[in-house]
User: Which sequence fits this backbone?
């Protein structure tokens, strides 16, 4: 216990160790948050979802906080709905019990330069035979009221402002967004800033009929992380990619270093043909093209991240480090405490697991921590080659999607930078911690 | 294989002069023969494993058979010359054509037999013909497909790795002399940056220099259309080389300097270096004769192993920069299920590795008088 305390005290002497640990704790917190708030199946469903899941989001929207850096603020997307109370709805019964009116209003401040990409209203209505009826109007900050549409509402109905031909005819322009956001008096093409109001007056013709509406504005910016080509909120892969990256990196590093150590220990302990076999396998493994085999497995068999993890571990066990462990084990095999263990009749497995390996843990820990980043990046590398897990939202997949869509060429830097920066933070966190651990556990390095 | 040196670098008893020359020769010969045989076995097993994986244990055959059936059927049905034939005659024709094609590709033999033939061809460097891929000249010879891409890969890997290697060794040597200095600390602080692979720096470089500053190209080998005269062509290639090469260099330079620096520091705290200092030798002499000389075997090993990796290319970096090298060819070959190209690229790597490791033992003996080939007594020459 005191040894552990001492190690922690030693660790705190290194700024890089503190920074690394803070980063790792932060990543762990994000992972826990992601796993708790979004169940695995839900994450997969959302990530694989198309328009039906992500219709509320604009395509290729940068994160909303980008506005901090713009002198001309770009429109930020939002969506409000009556079902969760973010848009107010009032139902008033009339003298006729069959008929009631539904008033839905939503006011919002629009202080951005330019017009939104699109406005949409998604109506849902419940009735038996008689359709409900709505009329939509738009009140601009200077008090003008623009009639948008009058229509019967089926069980569900989508109304897109730009694509409604009646509205285009009424406004005498094809560009509906310009017409409803611009100041008609102004000679410049500036949009009118201030409070806009959407008013929906509905009428139902049955006793228990209801009307609900969802109002969606597609701007240039969206949410905390922006969206991609398929309207998906990038926050999902950024959040959910964290536990996946950590799990892949940690499991691969743990599996590789532990197995390497056990195999090296067994080889040195038993000696003879076991040792010889392990050495020959190591040499064969050096000849095998590591990345090419991973790509082949991904292309031919399955792109499941867990299969990739298994193959990665399998190919990394018999690496050069097996030889360096071996040379240390050869020394400790001759130690007197091993002699003593033999004398009291300890079994081979007992000697390997209780005497040989525990002595190596100080060497193992820094190596393990330092190995994590390379595996985290390996997962991203496979994704960049198009071999990422087809169902899981990972950082590498976001980079791959962005690259495939020419995001850098088109100037959509956020799309590449967000996952890349997360990858970098993760890599550096583990690398810095591993670096400090190496110096603590290998005193020979400490003075250097 | 690198640590063979730890086995053979055990200081042996001093040489006993010319009287033992004959037995020395026999010992070296026997040792070399044993090493060669074990290398050959290693290469054979490694290549056979690659063949098995690249064929999915024979499953690729089924894909290929289906492809042949589809293509042959389609080409005969679409060919106007065969339109007058009756459906039965057409069916017969299709069957014969499929059989010929399967026979041509050797698919009628069982996989176990065929894999042995692949192995024999690979080991004798008879790389054969690709299944689907073609070189830009239109040839299906695997040798030509690989040779065509070799210059581009060697240009990228060669330029970046050589700068990386010599740059980091010399910077490390000078840092090791003034350790604890500002630049030394900067290098240590920056060494975790090497956790990220080169393609990762590549996307940042593309972002900064191609997308925002627009001073360097996004990727590719030359401008399109490519310049007519060779000077402009060369300059254009150089311009395209800057970003991929620097991403390779930046991704590894700090950890490389750090490792070499630590390595040199350990050697420069040896007693004989202190002795040389006490004698008042110049730092230049100390560096060259007392630090570099004993560390030469390690430097050579690292250089030799690096030289082999040049061959494989950087699959992902090449893909990110659209660099038409061997890495991208290997990636495409895998996507085309083109086993001959995959195996061809592997066998060349395996041979280069085996030959290098074999030769390294002798090189050690040349540069380090303590090392004896075959770890027995007597000199190697």
Assistant:
């Amino acid at each position: 216990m005191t040894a552990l305390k001492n190690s922690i005290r030693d660790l705190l002497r290194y700024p890089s160790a503190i920074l690394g640990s803070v980063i790792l704790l932060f990543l762990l917190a994000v992972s826990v948050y992601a796993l708790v708030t979004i169940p695995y199946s839900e994450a997969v469903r959302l990530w694989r979802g198309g328009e039906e899941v992500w219709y509320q989001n604009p395509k290729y929207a940068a994160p909303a906080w980008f506005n901090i850096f713009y002198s001309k603020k770009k429109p930020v997307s939002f969506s409000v709905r009556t079902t969760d109370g973010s848009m107010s709805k009032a139902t008033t019964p009339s003298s006729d019990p069959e008929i009631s009116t539904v008033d839905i209003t939503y006011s919002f401040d629009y202080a951005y330069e330019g017009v939104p990409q699109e406005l949409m209203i998604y109506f849902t209505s419940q009735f038996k035979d008689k359709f409900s009826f709505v009329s939509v109007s738009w009140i601009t900050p200077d008090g003008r009221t623009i009639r948008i549409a009058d229509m019967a509402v089926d069980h569900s109905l989508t109304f897109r402002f730009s694509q409604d031909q009646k509205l285009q005819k009424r406004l005498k322009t094809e560009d509906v967004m310009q017409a409803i956001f611009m100041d008609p008096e102004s000679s410049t093409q500036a949009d009118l800033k201030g409070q806009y109001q959407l008013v929906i007056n509905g009428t139902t013709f049955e006793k228990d009929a209801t009307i609900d509406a969802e109002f969606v504005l597609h701007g240039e910016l969206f949410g905390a992380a922006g969206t991609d080509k398929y309207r998906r909120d990038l926050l999902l892969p950024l959040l959910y990619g964290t536990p996946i990256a950590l799990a892949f990196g940690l499991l691969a590093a743990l599996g590789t270093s532990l197995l390497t150590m056990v195999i090296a220990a067994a080889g040195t302990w038993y000696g003879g043909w076991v040792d010889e076999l392990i050495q020959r396998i190591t040499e064969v493994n050096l000849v095998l093209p590591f990345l090419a085999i991973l790509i082949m497995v991904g292309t031919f068999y399955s792109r499941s991240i867990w299969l990739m993890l298994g193959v990665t571990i399998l190919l990394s066990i018999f690496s050069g480090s097996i030889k360096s462990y071996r040379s240390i084990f050869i020394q400790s095999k001759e130690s007197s405490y091993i002699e003593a263990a033999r004398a009291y009749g300890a079994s081979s497995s007992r000697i390997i697991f209780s005497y040989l390996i525990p002595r190596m843990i100080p060497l193992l820990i820094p190596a393990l921590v330092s190995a994590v980043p390379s595996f985290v990046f390996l997962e991203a590398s496979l994704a960049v080659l198009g071999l990422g897990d087809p169902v899981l939202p990972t950082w590498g997949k976001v980079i791959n999607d962005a690259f495939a869509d020419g995001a850098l060429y088109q100037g959509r830097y956020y799309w590449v930078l967000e996952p890349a920066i997360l990858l970098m933070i993760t890599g550096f966190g583990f690398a810095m911690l591993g670096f400090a651990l190496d110096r603590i556990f290998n005193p020979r390095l400490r003075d250097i | 294989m690198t640590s063979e040196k730890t086995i053979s670098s055990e200081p042996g008893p001093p040489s006993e002069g010319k009287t033992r020359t004959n037995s020395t020769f026999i010992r070296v010969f026997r040792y070399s023969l044993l090493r060669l045989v074990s290398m050959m076995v290693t290469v054979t097993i490694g290549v056979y494993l690659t063949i098995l994986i690249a064929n999915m244990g024979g499953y690729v055959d089924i894909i290929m058979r289906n492809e042949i059936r589809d293509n042959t059927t389609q080409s005969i049905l679409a060919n106007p010359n065969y339109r007058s034939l009756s459906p039965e005659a057409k069916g017969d024709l299709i069957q014969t054509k499929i059989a010929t094609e399967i026979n041509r590709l050797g698919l009628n033999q069982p996989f176990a037999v065929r894999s042995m033939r692949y192995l024999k061809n690979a080991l004798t460097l008879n790389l054969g013909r690709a299944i689907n891929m073609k070189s830009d000249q239109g040839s299906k010879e695997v040798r030509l497909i690989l040779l065509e891409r070799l210059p581009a890969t060697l240009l990228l890997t060669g330029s970046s790795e050589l700068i990386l290697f010599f740059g980091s060794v010399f910077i490390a040597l000078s840092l090791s002399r003034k350790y604890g200095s500002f630049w030394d600390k900067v290098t240590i602080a920056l060494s975790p940056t090497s956790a990220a692979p080169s393609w990762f720096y590549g996307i940042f470089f593309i972002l900064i220099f191609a997308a925002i500053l627009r001073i360097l190209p996004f990727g590719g080998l030359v401008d399109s259309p490519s310049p007519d005269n060779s000077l402009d062509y060369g300059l254009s290639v150089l311009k395209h080389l800057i970003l991929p090469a620097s991403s390779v260099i930046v991704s590894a330079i700090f950890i490389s300097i750090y490792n070499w620096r630590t390595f040199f520091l350990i050697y420069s705290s040896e007693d004989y270096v202190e002795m040389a200092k006490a004698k008042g030798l110049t730092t230049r002499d100390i560096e060259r004769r007392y630090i570099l000389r004993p560390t030469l075997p390690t430097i050579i090993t690292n250089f030799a192993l690096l030289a082999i990796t040049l061959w494989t290319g950087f699959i992902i970096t090449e893909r990110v920069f659209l660099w038409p090298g061997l890495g991208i060819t290997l990636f495409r070959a895998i996507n085309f299920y083109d086993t001959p190209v995959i195996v061809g690229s592997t066998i060349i790597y395996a041979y280069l590795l085996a030959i290098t490791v074999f030769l390294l033992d002798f090189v050690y003996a040349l540069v380090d008088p303590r090392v004896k080939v075959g770890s027995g007594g007597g000199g190697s020459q």
Summary: The first helix of chain A runs from residue 2 to 12. Residues 2-43+234-445 of chain A form a domain with the MetI-like fold fold (CATH 1.10.3720). The two ends of chain A are 28 Å apart (CA to CA). The first strand of chain A starts at residue 78 and ends at 81.
